[in-house]
Amino acid sequence: MAKTVLITGASSGIGEGMAKEFAKRGYNLVLAARRKESIDQLSATITKHYPALVIETVKLDVTDVAAVQKVIPALAKLMGTIDIVVANAGVGGGGEIGSDRFSEDAAIIQTNILGAMATIDAAVKLFKQQGSGQIVGIASVAAFRGLPGASVYCASKAAISTYMDALQLELHKSPIDVTCLYPGYIDTPINNKMKSRPFLIDVEKGSQILVELIEKKVKKSTVPVYPWNVVGRLLKVLPQFMLAGRV
Fold this sequence. Notes:
alpha/beta; SDR family oxidoreductase; SDR_fam; seven-stranded parallel beta sheet; single chain; Rossmann fold
């Protein structure tokens, strides 16, 4: 019987890429995003190639915490079960601290932290009732060190990393798997205006790696694994003068 994966933020970027990759591997899909027309179009595209799959789309703004708490169990009932929930929805942007862009910073926090936590919380409750499931949190290599010009984005991803660490401890030896992934630069709209994108890979390759790691049920990993597993460690210990002023 085919497994079902729910992906938030599925309308573009790695959310869209993972949806296509999971479809290739025979998964039924629940695609959630604020832009309903985009995920409906994605659903139609996938269905053309894989007509046997069951695909549901739902308009969902993860910052609406009450809606998230209602929608996820309702979708599980609709699909019969949900096996994997990928808390992927996220936004970039922001600016230097004190640059009069705090409203933009606050929006990042609302989506990347509160929205992700609401999704994960609802998934944990569902999987405890089901007796099984896998929760995937999408952090970022930005979680490893606060960087100039990206303070709030880095902080938001570090928050999810720490939250997932705590969840792994809470669910240790339970039938629920917890995976936290740290993508590097994957060529998506969230980073395509940045001046520097080291070790850049395309969405198709990035999505393939992400899904492979999810299927392996790894506890945590950078994406791709190399060189970011090494670079991530270096970021934590590099002296300030090597990073100051770099955006």
